[in-house]
User: Fold this.
Amino acid sequence: MTSESVFEAYERRLASSRERFVSAASAREVANGSIGSEPLEIFLMWFTALGQHMARPVAGWLRRAGERCQQLGAAELGKALVRHAGRADGHDQALRDGARSLVRRWNGRRGEAPIDTGRLLGALPTGGVRRYVELHRRVTGGPAPWGQIAIEYEIDRLSTTWCGAFVRTCLRTLGPDLRPYLSFLEDEVQPPDAARSSFHAEQLDRFLRERPEALEDLAPAGEGALDAYAEYLDDCLWLTRSEAIFRPAGPPVA
Assistant:
């Protein structure tokens, strides 16, 4: 199997998981805006509030995965992951700031139904968030820490697919004046052809050239990332519909 065909084999392995993600009710309804304008705006708030729990540990996961890759003989990938870790710092703060800005926008327009910022940002991690965190811990601490590059690649790839559609729907449904409030999200959106030339794609391809047998570690990690992220979107939509942002309510049961 050539190096290129190994990467293509990875792409084929992930095709069904990617299709399952975009076909899932939550991802589909949010991306096309069928949930309605006010629920979409509330969804954005939960997306940022819960997302902070997933963003905060990313730099540490990358460093841990990189260090363990080097210990296990995957020196080039390990060094690349450690170098890349610095780019993840501060993403959780950007999400918290985004949540506060969205709440101010809502409260400025709908004072009769004010949203409590403390309740929003104080929400505990939901089942989908915990699943996402546990996947990273399992991969970075397990026998195949190089699975981290597959997780990063799949989440990065969403910025060229689902995330782009989500942002366009938000602007179309909620108005162009929303754009300044989406800076935390628009910075992540990439053009459709960017995924395969990204840092993550290049590192994934290079590693598969060196270790084609690692496909059996990388594919499950990538699949797990998509499934966990889909559950996180389910949680955000559940909370949106529960009106938990206005009154006390617990997170969905995992």
Observations:
- The two ends are 40 Å apart (CA to CA).
- The chain has one domain: 3-242.
- The domain at 3-242 is CATH 1.20.910.10 (Heme Oxygenase; Chain A).
- The mean pLDDT is 89.
